[in-house]
Amino acid sequence: MIGKRYLRIFIGAFLLCFIVSCNQAPSNSETAGEGLSVVEGRVTAPLADAYLYVYQEGMDLYGPAFAVSAASDSDGRFSLSLPEGDYIGVVRKRANGESSGPVVAGDHRSEFLTLKVRGGVTRIEVEAPLKVGDDKQLAVEQELTQTILSGHILDSEGRPVEGARVHVYDHVQMSERPKFVSEKTGPDGRYLIHLPEGGTYYLAARDKFGGPPKIGDLYGRYDQGTIEPSAVVLREGEQRKNVDIHVTRVW
User: What are the counts of helices (DSSP H) followed by strands (DSSP E) for the chain?
Assistant: First the structure.
């Protein structure tokens, strides 16, 4: 009789321990997901509401990221779970609160970081200084001058292209980052861009922002039947219309 009583007590205790263990909260590694590691960091200053954008090697560093952290807290701290691997990271904070789009004067941006994620927790500390000067500006963010370029972005069939931008350069090689970028075209394919001064400009149109054109992108340069891009020469206060650009799919 006593033996059966102890047996029942032992079985009850075992079941109780099993139930408690099943209801315990997962560990940090389990929370991150199976096979994932954690990148913990801090944006010095400190800087709140900044994001860590992580790219895999070979990705367009100005396009959509492989992964994005949650916004940094008031101490500038953030974390992000990633599979093991080699990555490139950059911290950005846009004054307009957007999580995508170009970084312009008034925004914060770090240098590009090399991240080697090898399990466990990878800790980083990064500076994201305020961007004061600007190599390029969106038309909506510029003073509305009277030096204006306008026209349409068209496909190879002459149909308007929606959601594309005009990139404005001041060198014929067009290899540097653009000086100015228009807003996205609407359904009519029309663009309009205010320039701060007259000058000699070279134009390209594309449906992606940042980095060299990739396979599948829409891309085209303004030319008048020449191999090299054609220059657009504007005088101060001049308004040039019907500067149309044709784009084709990159293959």
Answer: 2, 19
